[in-house]
Amino acid sequence: MSQVEFRQVDVFTSEPFKGNPVAVVMDARELNSRQMQVIARWTNLSETTFVLPATDPNADYQLRIFTPGGELPFAGHPTIGSAYALIEAGIVQAKNGTLVQQCKAGLISLAVSENEQGQIAIAFELPEPNFTLLTSEQTESLETILGCQISCGFTPYLVDVGARWIVAQTDDAEQVLNTTPDYAALKQHDLSFNATGVCLYGYYPESEFTRIEVRSFAPTCDVNEDPVCGSGNGAVAAFIRRHNLSLPIDGKIQSTQGQKLHRDGQLQLTITSDAIWVGGQAVTCVSGYLTY
């Protein structure tokens, strides 16, 4: 029997049990792909990550990311949670406030900062998105499956950022929270697009385009609803920029996610013409060893 260090980190929160947990296997050099998938299925979290030495000289470490159903080239909250775990354990150190993660989607830049209370915040730069516009027939089908009305004039896109999210906007945050998808139909729908899932978002009316509510549905990954999704929020930010929607002067949008799952995820999206950054805090809830 062998052991490997393991941590479970809550992401997009500074309060334990309020964000989205990711399981982090801190040194996966002795594990093969089959073992990684078995562990990810066992943790039954939306993602489990496996840390490996970087093979690219420009990266600080390498990360493989698994859902219970398969491997992803990139995912947001596992990126932030894994970086937090590695910093906390002293395995990596930010250089001039920067880390570089190697994953199947390429090299991901991370910005690391610390507030006056000593709390670490980490933001990742979204990989360059690719867009596929949905047809009117596909949009109507999506509305039926989600059971909500999609905002007129903002046609949904399939946004590929490594994870492939179909993004749609509703009239407001309340509609997002009241949506009850047909998950069986949604799974078949997403499989036909080779999509990770669907991200639905809407603005809070009093926010003047500075605060949104997001929900991320991913039944193809055996996760009907991801509590707080970094890549999904990044895809939403890319959708907002693609449609030239209103932005605050500083380009910052506060995103909340997870209310329907009794979470309180808090994310900051920063949107410029050159880059999209998705950031938040994290906290370790479990640390120990896995025996295999």
Report Rg: 18 Å
Q: How large is the share of residues in beta strands?
A: 35-45%
Largest sheet: 8 strands, mixed, barrel
First and last CA, distance: 6 Å
CATH topology of the largest domain: Diaminopimelate Epimerase, Chain A, domain 1
Number of strands: 17
Q: Tell me the structural class.
A: alpha+beta
Figure out the total of helices: 6
What level of helicity do the residues show? 10-25%
Could you say which overall geometry the principal axes of the C-alpha atoms support? globular
User: Which spans have pLDDT < 50 for at least 5 consecutive residues?
Assistant: none
Tally of distinct domains: 2
Structure description:
The protein is α+β, with helices and mostly antiparallel strands and 292 residues long. The chain folds into two domains: 3-126 and 280-291, Diaminopimelate Epimerase, Chain A, domain 1 (Roll); 130-274, Diaminopimelate Epimerase, Chain A, domain 1. Helices cover 22% and strands 38% of the residues. The chain contains six helices and 17 strands. The chain has helices at 33-43, 76-88, 136-146, 173-178, 183-193, 230-242; strands at residues 3-11, 20-25, 48-52, 61-66, 71-72, 98-103, 106-114, 120-125, 130-133, 157-160, 164-169, 197-203, 211-218, 223-226, 252-257, 265-271, 276-291. The chain has an eight-stranded mixed barrel. Strand 16 (265-271) and strand 17 (276-291) form a beta hairpin. Helix 2 (76-88) crosses helix 6. The chain is globular and about 55 Å long. The active site is at residue 47. This is Phenazine biosynthesis protein PhzF family. One of its GO terms (cellular component) is cytoplasm. Belongs to the PhzF family. Pfam families: PhzC-PhzF.
